[in-house]
Design a protein that fits this description.
Oligomer: single chain
Number of helices: 10
Order of helices and strands: HHHEHEHHEEHEHEHH
Strand order of the largest sheet: 3-2-5-6
Distance between the termini: 31 Å
Number of strands: 6
Strand content: 5-15%
Structural class: alpha/beta
Largest sheet: 4 strands, parallel
Shape: globular
Radius of gyration: 17 Å
Helix content: 25-40%
Length: 221
């Protein structure tokens, strides 16, 4: 499975990738893809890493699970393939973008354009069985992605972590707040957004302000 992972990440995560739990995870995922329809496509499992090497990471957005519907997931959290209808959370992300930065609602829900600018779009669980949300949770992915966040916190400085919703907020304990910026908000899902916990958070403009403060190029959202 790891042959598709960018070599720079492989080198940084060498120790984690050699641990017993990861080897068990690898066997589980390999079998799942062999016996069931799973998402994202095998070659896209590591998209978040392959579009954004550790030296390029400026912003981190954390999701939970890949989309489990046909042709939706592309390995980047909240992102869908070109031409796919935008899921409700993504719709609310784009609505907040419109209000916050006064930019038109995007046609494509594919967030590769963000990833290529240094936005690390990490799901806590990188794979899922079709039509079965959470089916690959508690198999080792969360342990691995927690190690990734910890490593990012250690190795980098001035990264903007955008933690949306209760699940993502729990990851704050892995981040050194003396070295990094942490923006916290409700989740963009309709349940949270419609209760007033998402809209108006201005995370996109706040993120760009913080990047400029560090003399880094802002994200073209």
């Amino acid at each position: 499975m790891i042959e598709n992972l960018d070599i720079s990440w492989r080198n940084i995560l060498k120790e984690e990738l050699s641990k017993d739990y990861f080897k068990k995870l690898e066997s589980f995922v390999t079998l799942e893809y062999k016996e069931h329809r799973c998402y994202p496509e095998k070659e896209n499992i590591w998209s978040a890493f392959n579009y954004c090497t550790i030296k390029d990471v400026k912003v981190v957005i954390i999701g939970q699970d890949p989309y489990h519907g046909k042709d939706q997931a592309n390995g980047l959290c909240f992102s869908v393939q070109d031409g796919i209808k935008h899921p409700p959370s993504l719709v609310n992300i784009f609505k907040e973008l419109e209000t916050d930065l006064n930019i038109p609602y995007p046609i494509s829900g594919n967030l590769e354009r963000w990833a290529k600018q240094g936005v690390f779009l990490l799901n806590a669980t990188l794979t899922v069985r079709e039509g079965n949300p959470g089916s690959h949770q508690k198999k080792g992915w969360e342990k691995f992605t927690d190690a990734v966040i910890t490593e990012l916190s250690k190795q980098k400085e001035g990264v903007v972590f955008m933690l949306w919703g209760g699940y993502a907020k729990k990851k704050a304990k892995l981040i050194d707040v003396n070295k990094h910026y942490v923006l916290v908000s409700g989740h963009p899902s309709p349940l949270s957004a419609n209760r007033g916990y998402w809209f108006g958070n201005s995370h996109f403009s706040r993120c760009n302000f913080l990047l400029c403060k560090k003399m880094l190029k802002k994200i073209d959202w």
